[in-house]
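Dear Dr. H.,

I hope your travels went smoothly. While you were away I took the liberty of generating a structure for the chain from your last submission, since the lab meeting agenda had it listed for discussion. I wanted you to have the full record in hand beforehand rather than looking at slides cold. The sequence, exactly as received, is reproduced here:
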Amino acid sequence: MMKLLVFPHSHYCEKARWVLDYKKIAYDPIAIMPGLHMLTVRRYGKRTSVPVLLDGNDAIQGSSEIIDYLEDKCPDNNLTPANAEQLDVCLSIEKDMDKRLGENIRQILYARLLDYPDYIRFCFTYSMSSIKQFMFTLTYPVLKRKIYDTYVMSDEKVAEARIVFDEALAKIEATISKQPYLLGDTFTRADLSVASMLSLLVLPKEHPFPWDEKEIPDAEIKALFETYADHPVAEWVRNIYRHHR
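The corresponding predicted structure, in token form, is as follows:
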């Protein structure tokens, strides 16, 4: 059986999980400890990021790379357009929105939520043993600094991230106002990718992470969620999850 190394709450890991589920491929999701995960992941890939898919002797790192691998290995329930022109558009949307939506929403959320260690511990370790959760608590001060330096950086960078995020959201809104999916009438990896990237903001009930078990602890993040709750793209994400997740 395939194994998928994940951070349970990660939107990039959700993207990989969703593809596996959509293709009805049996796999074992394995939550790994942040910080210590670098020792594990380095055995399989050049980067220290997850998701990492393990399939026998093959190790595939990165959500888009995992889709490529699974599309070739398990072509049923295909998500990648065969038409060359549509393929270029699809992959361009996926790459662009993985960055402009995915990276920026992570930066925006971490900027506030890192001050709540109990919530961050829940996100990373809710399915782990109490011993591992205790280890997370002990190492959190170091981990917090590492996450901040890597993903948040400064208040100015967070403000810039919000602008880029909103611009990307407007681009998606302009497309879906004319058609049900990003490439027209067919659900593709572009839709799956964008919906996954926005899952951290929309928190769809079909998402496998138990968001409703822990209240958002920060007033500004609650207000952020409320600001986007009725956004057309948020409703589109909920619809994509209802019909395809």
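Two observations you may find useful: The chain has a mean pLDDT of 96. Residues 84-113 form the longest helix (30 residues).

With kind regards,
E. W.
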